[in-house]
Amino acid sequence: MPKAQETAVYTHGHHESVLRSHTWRTAANSAAYLIGSLKPHMKVLDVGCGPGTITADLAALVPDGHVTGVDHAAGILDRARATAAERGLDNVDFAVADVHALDYPDDTFCVVHAHQVLQHVGDPVQALREMRRVTRPGGFVAVRDSDYAAMTWYPESAGLDHWLDLYRRVARANGGEPDAGRRLKAWALAAGFTDVTATSTTWTFSTPEEREWWSGLWADRTVASAYAERATGGGHATRDRLAAVAEAWREWGRREDAWFAVLHGEVLCRKDA
């Protein structure tokens, strides 16, 4: 039987506005639900590592172990290697991989981690099966994904309503599932896990600096990233519509009373010993 392959298209791409968000991520703000299960000797696989900021944090948390970061996009791995080098880490390496068909033997890793990955893949259940396969008995698969339909903000904004509707349509047209957070537990059970702890946490943006940063990166992403090309190329929006959505983001960010919350679903799945 041929190996399963990725069929979805990564919605965001790696424009500067995307990396602005991805390089902000740390183990503390994006993988806190996992940290308590890590031990210094562990061997960890970080799936969809992107620019490697979480990967590097995980490597620092397992100083006597090793972390391998993998991503489907080869180009981003140079940035990840630079991140690890800047921190002086020598227990981390990086490789290209497809989560649907990981090129590692069964029972290789103590922990397999993926942050904001399953929302972008063509077959999240198959991805979890592969993550489970390469995890050692008694080890963990840890997955966290946002849920776009559950994102909420104040004050009301017709422009942000348009943004959310448009993003969800583009993401699904690309083969992904933007409302992944609420589905993680179901996907994990379908993948064969029987010991699943499901939790949720949020990112909240409300201070002047947070509002400027969050609204600015989404305004730029809406008009200048791969997402913008896929929105217009797929017939989902015109350039004028994208410009209007971007301006709605900036208007929201200028509001002193503005507040935005991103809900994430999380699952910590133990592989049967």
What does this structure look like?
The mean pLDDT is 94. The chain is α/β, with parallel strands linked by helices. It contains 11 helices and 8 strands. The longest helix is centred in the last third of the chain and has 17 residues, at 208-224. The two termini are 27 Å apart. 40% of the residues lie in helices and 22% in strands. Strand 2 (66-71), helix 5 (77-86) and strand 3 (92-96) form a beta-alpha-beta unit. The protein is globular, with a radius of gyration of 18 Å.
Write out key terms for the chains shown.
single chain, 273 residues, alpha/beta, eight-stranded mixed sheet, 22% strand
Going by helix content, strand content and strand pairing, the class is: alpha/beta
The H-and-E topology, N to C, reads as HHHEHEHEEHEEHHEHHHE
Tell me the span between the first and last alpha carbons. 27 Å
Low-confidence stretches: none
Percent range of helical residues: 25-40%
Q: Give the overall form.
A: globular
Give the rounded overall mean pLDDT. Answer: 94
Radius of gyration: 18 Å
Main sheet properties: 8 strands, mixed
Strand content: 15-25%
Secondary structure tally, helices:
11
Please report the total strand number as a whole number.
8
Could you give a quick summary of the protein structure above?
With 273 residues, the chain is an alpha/beta fold.
Task: Give the topology.
Blueprint: H1 16-22, H2 27-30, H3 32-35, E1 43-47, H4 53-61, E2 66-71, H5 77-86, E3 92-96, E4 109-115, H6 124-133, E5 135-146, E6 152-154, H7 158-173, H8 184-190, E7 195-205, H9 208-224, H10 226-233, H11 239-254, E8 259-270
Parallel strand pairs: 1-2, 1-4, 2-3, 4-5
Antiparallel strand pairs: 5-8, 6-8, 7-8
Helix pairs in contact: 1-9, 7-11, 9-10, 9-11
